[in-house]
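[job 4471] stage=fold_predict status=RUNNING
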Amino acid sequence: MSTPESLDPKTVKMLWDQNQHKSQDKTSQSHKKKRTENITQVIADGIQDNVISDEAYTEETGLDPWINSETPESPQIENTDNHSRDCIIKISKSPEEKDLRKENTEIPDLRRKISEFDAERAELTRMIAEALKMTKEERTRRAVENAKLKARI
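[job 4471] inference complete, writing structure tokens
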């Protein structure tokens, strides 16, 4: 077996690249299987297996692996905390938005009621027009017929 000193730099680089690709392939395969698991568990498993790379860590967490993320002074953690606080404030800050949402839900109900009133008004208008068309003779004839019906009862 040859020692590292006896290998030329190209061979060392080629072997290194092959090893990196193999470890990245193993990492990506294991992470595909574990997609539904908690991300911290996936990272912990990768670290335990010693196959997780810096790029994979950065991709999984969004943090730089060379910065100590566990200290409270870490700018990465502070930025994510500020970002989450900003999102919460944006989501819950506007009472006007709540009022507008309430009005938007009331608008379809009001439109439905207006269309019902319009339909009722059209029906009444039609009935009034029919009543006005009746002539005096028709009214008297109907009155006589109604009187005959009442007499039978």
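[job 4471] summary: The chain has six helices and no strands.
[job 4471] exit 0
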